[in-house]
Amino acid sequence: MNVAVLLLLGLGLLEAEGRCFFNRTEEYCVCYNLSQESASSIIQCVAASVVEFRGGELEKYVAFPISDLDPSTIEMLGSLVVRKIIFGDLLVPEILLSQVLRFFSYTQVQELVFESCVFEGRGNWDEMADQHLPILSLRFHNVTSAPLTGREQDFSSLSSWLETLQELAVTGSRVTSLPCGIGRVFQALRSLDVAQNSLRDESLMPAFCDGAFPQLQVLSLQRNSLTSYHSVCESVQLLHELQHLDLSQNQLMADSSSSCRWPVSLRIFNLSDTGLDEVLRPLPPSLEVLDVSCNHLHAVDISLSSLKKLFLSHNMLQAAPSIRNYPMLDTVHLDNNAITELPWDEVKLLGHLRDVTAAGNPYNCSCSGAGGLQALAGMGHLGQGWPQDYTCHTPPHYQGRLVKDVPVSVLQCNSAAVIAPICVVLALLGVAGAICLVRSRPGLLRPCRRL
Q: pLDDT of 343-387, one tens digit each?
């Protein structure tokens, strides 16, 4: 809205001192409750790269005549360094927005954000036909507007701009559907975030119809009303460029008869906090990152040859999964499970990874249990959380003690390994002594006399 208010400046709304505050260090300017009387204070924001507008009175300008800009105003807008504009807590008449938005073509603004705004009425977007805007990222959070259904013509008028948009977020805004025709407008979109809405399984198939979002690489469906793993899989099959899918915070259920195939391009899959008792199948075949943290998993019995990062924190695992099933793995997180010990054979394999965390587990601080963790820490693999978040649960005399403080010397943990070599050495010394004695006193060994 920086540009929108600067446009108001150009329209003659320069009067009393207002409430804009400029942080020169961060190049961030914020204006509160901007009105006709306070609009002049925005002049201090001309050096900002980010401008935020909170509150204000826009509805009174609906009937204000907005004419084409003169060359000096166009030159001024083009000289601004503003790259991001945030509108918050505003009542936005859509007809005013449709009149002002076209002037963004004279600016260098690349990101436009609306937070906690109410869009009122319907605008006439015909004037935006064939208008190209520099805005590549458009974000809405907690906004209220007319339903998207039946607004395909409005989006068509904006197509010259929207078909170049790269990032779109509509979060926490009670969205229930994404019409197919609207999705087909976003030809260059790389990232779509529709988290914290009310999308259901049946609304996904039309949203991602043939021709919709053809370049989409990142899709967040976090915290909606999705329940069917199979339906989601079928709905995104036509997203051939999809690389990152976030389904976290949905309550997903498996379909035993599912034979759906995920897009082969999918590399990052977030299934955290989805109520899983087991890892759902099928999984994307070329998966590199899998997040199934914050679920109810008791075991993980999957094999993915391409997997590089596996996040399993906050589950009910009693043992770490076998690293042999993931030959490309470099990261595994096992925090806050029910793991009591990391076996030595797994410790040796974990030692080849770059990032291992296993804090908050009820460790059995036997020699092998504590020794394995200390060995991993000694190799520098346990990272953040070591040693303060690694404590003993058993045996009783170590309960509450840090794992790092448990003595695991060879003499204490494997006395047989020390005593046996000592016995062998003593035996050898005894034999050597006997031989020396015999050689020094040959008479000690006399031949038997015959009778």
A: 878 888 888 888 999 999 999 998 888 988 998 898 888 878 999
Parts of the chain with a pLDDT under 50: 1-18, 410-412, 414-420, 422, 444-445, 448-451
Bridge partners (DSSP) listed for residue 54:
32, 88
Residue 57 in tokens: 């009175």
| Cα–Cα distance measured from residue 2 to residue 306, given in angstroms and rounded to the nearest whole number | 46
Q: What is the pTM of this model?
A: 0.85
Is there a contact between 134 and 162 (Cβ–Cβ < 8 Å)?
no
| Rg from Cα positions in the chain | 34
Rounded Cα distance, 308 and 332, in Å:
9
Q: Coil, helix or strand for 104?
A: helix
Q: Residue 140 — φ and ψ, nearest 5°?
A: -125, 130
Coil, helix or strand for 148? coil
**Distance of alpha carbon 395 from alpha carbon 381, whole angstroms:** 25
DSSP of 129-175: TT------EEEEES-B-S-STT-HHHHHHTHHHHTT--EEEEESS--
